[in-house]
Structure of Acetylornithine/N-succinyldiaminopimelate aminotransferase:
Amino acid sequence: MFISNTYKRLPIKVKNAKGIWIYDESGEKYLDTFSGIGVLSFGHCDEEINEAISMQIKKYTHISNFFIDENAIILAKRLVEETKKDGTVFFANSGAEANEAALKAIKKLKKGIIISFENNFHGRSIGSLSITGFLNLREQFEPLLSNIAFLPFNDSKKLENFIEKKGKKISAIFVECVHGSGGLDTVNKDFVDVINKYKDIYDYIIIADEVQAGLGRTGEFYSYQNFNLNSDIVTVAKSLGGGLPLSAAIFTGKYKDVFSVGDHGSTFAPNPVSLAAGKTVINRITKTFLDSVKEKSSYLKNKLLTLKKNYPIIKEIKGIGLMLGIEINNNNYSEKIIEYGLNEKILLNVVKGNTIRLLPALNITHHEIDEMLYRLEKVIKKLNSC
């Protein structure tokens, strides 16, 4: 096939896509529940985003970082303002690159132990993989970066004990408030309280990885705002470019001027076409829009909890906003879930072996949610009878 075999691809030849639907070459349509893994907040082929892309292409597609595109300033301003702090933005092309920028800043600012947590996912480049909490992803590429400590997620006592012993040697803590690849678990209050409390004592840097959960996905502009995490650096990507590659590392407070000329760079980021799409995306993330995400989340979650009551195969409903997980009572059903989904013309994504991850378009309608649930229940019913 001439393509590296790094993904288990679905047996569908895509012809086109629109909204929440993907159409194959034979004319069949499939309901897409994961929107390009959270990239397409406004669904496939959104007219406003496509128009912004089209208009920008007619101006220029690339000018290099010897110039500043006006949209970069607009986008950076909004990203910083939403943190409620002063700050600056370094644009990159992917979530891994944004986290690499954060790591590089940490190395410049403060030497020491970097804490990450089990089931955190921060990327697959050498640096970002070094802080990713999946041993099976890391071990064949070791040795990676040194001085990384992995602790259990949401275990406040173990975290507190570790900080009490190593506090002066800790440089940073990476937090993924909602585990996108790790099963949709959300950070709990006690855990955040420990992280915030000892930051005041030991002055370590807190990085909120918002690559998947940010930009309205959880009903707040940034997911950490649901949990009052006192972050210093915020990384965003996925939905930022409206379907095109774009990410950002946002440096706030006393860390806002961490990079000087020549400290870091990117040939392609921020790409003007991606910026034009990104400006359209963030302009539509208003308070009213965020409230609608919360309302649809409540509607969808209540329906999923009803499914849980009716089908014992469902162990737990997890997540927040329109970033929800259906944990199945069997770790060996991943392939069945995908297969049954294809049979019912619904595209399902499974993470951590047994959790169906739902990342629908944020502008999904209630009617479309009902259609998703109708097809999803047929899949769950088949699983329940296995």
About this structure: The chain has a mean pLDDT of 97.
